[in-house]
Amino acid sequence: MRTFAYARPARVEDAAAALSQPAARAMGGGTDLITQQHRGILAAESVVDLRGLGLDAIAAEGEGVRIGATVTLADLGRDEAVRERFAVLHQAASAAASPQLREMGTVAGNLCQQVRCWYFRHPDLTCWLRGGDTCYAQVGDHRKHGLEPGDCISVAPSDLAAALLALDATVDTSSRPQGIPLADLYRKASDENRSTLALAPGEFVTAVVVPRAPDASAYERAGERHAWSFALAGVAAARFGDQLRLAAIGVSNLPRLLDPADPLAGLPGLEQTAWKRRLLSGLAGQALARVSG
Amino acid sequence: MRYDATLKVNGRAYPVAIEPGRNLLSVLRSEVGLTGAKEGCDDSECGACMVLLDGQPVNSCSYLALQADGREIVTIEGLAGEDGDLHPLQQAFLDQGGVQCGFCTPGMLISAKALLDRNPSPDEDEIRLALSGNLCRCTGYSGIVRAVQAVAEQR
Description:
The complex is a heterodimer. Helix content of chain A is 27%, strand content 20%. By secondary structure, chain A is α+β, with helices and mostly antiparallel strands. Chain A has one domain (56-291): Uridine Diphospho-n-acetylenolpyruvylglucosamine Reductase, domain 3 (2-Layer Sandwich), CATH 3.30.465. In chain A, α5 (87-95) runs antiparallel to α9. The model of chain A has no long low-confidence stretch (mean pLDDT 96). Chain B is of the alpha+beta class. Chain B folds into two domains: 3-78, Beta-grasp domain (Ubiquitin-like (UB roll), Roll), CATH 3.10.20; 88-154, DNA polymerase, domain 1 (Orthogonal Bundle), CATH 1.10.150.120. Chain B has helices spanning 24-32, 88-95, 105-118, 124-130, 142-154; strands spanning 3-9, 12-18, 50-53, 56-59, 72-74. The longest helix of chain B has 14 residues, at 105-118. Chain B starts with a strand and ends with a helix.
């Protein structure tokens, strides 16, 4: 593995300063970052461990809940209040990765993890998203990729992102403590900037806030096996009174809000992914049925 | 640059000076000298590298050694008693045919111990879920699940 400097600051300002350095990367549990660094697909010169910042609390806030950035997926999955009031979040947190990786992985790390694509993660290829010229998936094997044409057709893998998007959550960052809508944490990568995260240099997620509890919510997910597999697709549904919110991962480059009346809108499918339209349609139907009042 | 850290492994403190990029597994195997935890996939897929960190199972291949500084680590070497008596889970794995080639066994035992420490009487689904991050290519898992069930029933 390429070597790097390591820091574990105790204050948010110090972490932001350390992350403003070139090729500095924020780390939560490290489950995605370290494997990327290890394969040589990431060349961080310094790693800033955010788990010394004390951002590891789950606390009621108003009618909702505030979840610290470095809360582990396991602790989120074990939280009784979250299980009772935000079922979709409990279900998504408990479905991600393996039980052991959930002890390591953090909420912010899960939201900010890189896309799943065997070309992106190949040590010998530099695909478009990594700064190259070619999206190898589009000319190669893209059976498990997205339903939406674009420069990069890999999929956003964060189960939590689907749940939090359905819950209309906001994200607090080190430089925007007042919070931004979760959808604004993400951006379409462009030729000029290949990142799918809309964070400025030095900026990092400090907390996720769900403003209010839904009347009902549910997460439906399909993977190659029930445990320890990335979602082929995941759909989160939440009902607030008569308003439905539906969100999906595994179908698009970014976590995506779906139209409950037409979940497949804007997702035509690609040559090898048309089958995923049926999967998405089925998962959306199941999720909506579980929240119908 | 090397950083000083103290790894507390199986109740003993090991001062080490390590590069930040070193994973916990490699430091346990090389500097600490405990080779029970195995490197299988080196990518968090197989679970052969599992150790307990403050009682929770983690994939030590994808965990920086520096992240474990000052925390309580238990490896497979920490399961048996000081007199060499096997941990009940270890004995049950032998009795129930939960071991064949043995490569996954240290990781399986660590995940099983974490489960029983948290939930002394799990049902079969809970056992299979708790071990879902550990792959075994020999046994077909039945003997492993029976072994965990047998220990749970003794408790």
